[in-house]
Amino acid sequence: MSDPLAVISLHQDTPELAHTYEQLGVIQFNHGKLLLEPLALKPGERVLDVGAGTGRLAEFAARLVGPTGHVVGVDPLDSRIAIARLRQSTNLVFDTGRAEDLSRFGEGEFDVVYFNSVLHWIADKRTVLQEARRVLRPSGRIGLTIQDPTAPHESRILLRRAITEAGLDAERLSAHGVYAATDAELRALFDHTGFVGYQSELRTLVETHGNVDELLGWSESSAFGNFLDGFSYAEGKRIRAAFTGLVEAHRTPEGLRLARYLRYAFARKPE
């Protein structure tokens, strides 16, 4: 589940990357709406969005719980929270915070906690789920999306091919990968942290990008500046050139169509 070589640095994020993420984040937003459907948010419920980014999905959740409900979004990146706070309202607030430490919240404070494409950036998943369980009320629901190592994104496969075509070692990419998890690993994590009713499904999501620059911008901003980290500037140019050629083969009249695979997982805190 955890690659000991993986190094994900949040310190490489910038306001420019946050702005790009906000511009192109409709992709992740659409994935998140699919996550919220089974969670079935109800008017009046209290919801915690962990890893809220620039707040687009939390804003949508706030509309679902209505004026009598409340949504809190936390994210460790100040530049993204600064954008998210532009969305604040009477039932929606944002603050900086890490998934591994939700100590600002009381036990049983929320009806729902969710993580939209967040957990695969975090090595200590057990602490994260323990914290989520603590802040959930009895029978409270949890949902998440996560990358599954058995089903790498199509763009990831093309990127590894591009690195090879550029005459470089694609294994260097693994040192800046993600902490993905299989269904069996997730089930064990939920069991060990005291959740019940675990269910998961691996979904195929087809994304359309206008051009390669847009795809690269999304890849860089969603990885907080870690995309191709560890390769030199000259190496990066060679990789991007090879990647462009490979990706263009997927062009359709609507744009560049690539498949992304995410595991959707759900459970609840016992009564």
Can you describe this structure?
With 271 residues, the chain is α/β, with parallel strands linked by helices. It has a domain at 10-150 and 177-208 and 261-268: Vaccinia Virus protein VP39 (Rossmann fold, 3-Layer(aba) Sandwich), CATH 3.40.50. The protein contains 9 helices and 8 strands. Strands 1, 2, 3, 4, 5, 6, 7 and 8 form an 8-stranded mixed β-sheet that branches. Helix 3 (56-65) links the parallel strand 1 (46-50) and strand 2. Helix 1 (15-24) crosses helix 8, helix 2 (26-39) runs parallel beside helix 3 and helix 6 packs across helix 9 (233-248). The longest helix has 16 residues, at 233-248. Mean pLDDT is 93; it is low at 1-6. Residues 42-143 form the Methyltransferase domain.
Taking the alpha carbons of the first and last residues, their distance comes to 29 Å
What portion of residues is helical? 25-40%
Count of DSSP helices? 9
CATH architecture of one domain: 3-Layer(aba) Sandwich
Q: Tell me the name of the CATH class of one domain.
A: Alpha Beta
H/E series: HHEHEHEEHEHHEHHEE
Gyration radius, rounded: 19 Å
Secondary structure: number of strands: 8
Regions with little confidence, pLDDT below 50 for 5+ residues = 1-6
Average pLDDT rating: 93
Main sheet characteristics: 8 strands, mixed
CATH topology of one domain: Rossmann fold
Strand content: 15-25%
Helix-and-strand structural type: alpha/beta
CATH H-level homologous superfamily name of one domain: Vaccinia Virus protein VP39
